Every structure is written in C-alpha cells, then in structure tokens.
Amino acid sequence: MSWGFLRDLLSGVNKYSTGIGRIWIAIVFIFRLLVYVVAAENVWKYEHDEFECNTKQPGCENVCFDHFFPVSQIRLWALQLIIVSTPSLLVVFHVAYRENREKRHNQKLYRSAGQIDGGLLCTYLISLILKTGFEIVFLVLFYKLYNGFKVPRLVKCDMSPCPNAVDCYISKPTEKMIFLYFLVATSGVCIVLNVSELSYLIFKYSVKCYTKTFSKKQQ
Predict the structure, then answer these.
(1) Domain Connexin N-terminal: where (predicted)?
(2) What is the value of pTM for the model shown?
C-alpha cells in the first residue's frame, strides 16, 4: 500500500487543527508512520519463516504460530494507523462541504470555511472522541493478543497435530518487544494529546458562550 495517501490526509487536516492537534499530527507522522515504514516493517518481515519449533511434525509449526500470533503485530499496527487517522476525514469533508455550499450560494457564508466553530466544532470534537476510542481499543487488543505487551523467547505449544508439548522459538523477541513498547508509548502520548485538545476546545467554547451570555445580560 502507498502510505503517501495517509501523509496527504494528515497534511490536509493540519490546516484546520489547533496547536495541540498539530503536535498530534507530527507524532503520528514522525514517530509512528515513519518508524513503521523505515524500521518496524523489516523487523517482522520474515516472522513466520524464522519461527521454529523442535519438531518435524507436518502442520505443527504453522498451528503453533497461528495460536501465538493470531494477528501479526505489524499488520495490526498498520491497521491501527489507518483507523486512528480516518476520523480526521470528517473534518476535511466538513470543510469541503462548507466551501461547496459557499460556491453554490455564490456568497460568503462563513468567516472562514476552516474555522473551528458551530457545526465544524462538533465534527472536530466527534473526530477527537473517535480517535481516542480507537487508540484505547487497539491498546486493549494488543494487550489481550500478546499477553501484556510481551514477546517471549520461548513458547510451549501442545496444539493438534503436535505429538506432545513442543518448544517454539520466536525470532528477534527483544527487538520486537522494544518496538511494541514504543508503539504503546506513542499511542499513550496520542491519547493524552487527544484528551487535552478535547478539554481545551470544550473549555474555550464554554468560556465563549459564558462571555456572550454575560454580555447580553449586561446590555
């Protein structure tokens, strides 16, 4: 797949984001997307070929690999990147809708099509909630699938058609665990940024509404 599409999407959203949102985009692009493309993808490149069990029983090695790695970590990471970035499309679509509406009416309907206010504010808040929710779901998924973010050196397998409990060895377990911890850490930072931006926008909008209401009462 071409990761250029995801890069272009994040670059487009950058124009309509707050300062905190731009930090989130920078972390996703530099510390997640680039790390995935440049380094992490190669670590898991031959994970199935390098998974070894101390038996020659046909099918045993494949069954054990599927049992301990029901979903490839690197593919799950790629899926996480795509799904977490997708809610940003809501903001881009909403801005495009505003611009198209102004063209149809041939007049200025908004102070700025990309200004976060009114309906666009709601869309932006929804995108932040979805991104945070997806991040948490994937962290829980990683935790459940890989037994607490661990990549063991040795796993014991007694799945059929293995003749008995066999020892299986995972390739580059330390390196994989480092990348898994890095993935968890960057996800945690992104969750904190999303929650901070959500709180900031709600606080800012609340202050704005309170100030407007107070001014009307004074008048």
Answers:
(1) 42-75
(2) 0.84
Are the beta carbons of 85 and 9 closer than 8 angstroms?
yes
In the chain, where the domains are located: 3-205
Assign domain 3-205 to its CATH superfamily. Answer: Gap junction channel protein cysteine-rich domain (1.20.1440.80)
In tens, the pLDDT along 150-202 reads: 888 898 988 888 888 899 998 888 888 888 888 899 999 999 999 999 999 89
Do residues 186 and 34 lie in contact, with contact meaning Cβ atoms separated by under 8 Å? Answer: no
Sheet bearing 166-169, strands edge to edge: 52-53, 166-169, 154-157
User: Percentage of the chain with pLDDT > 70?
Assistant: 90
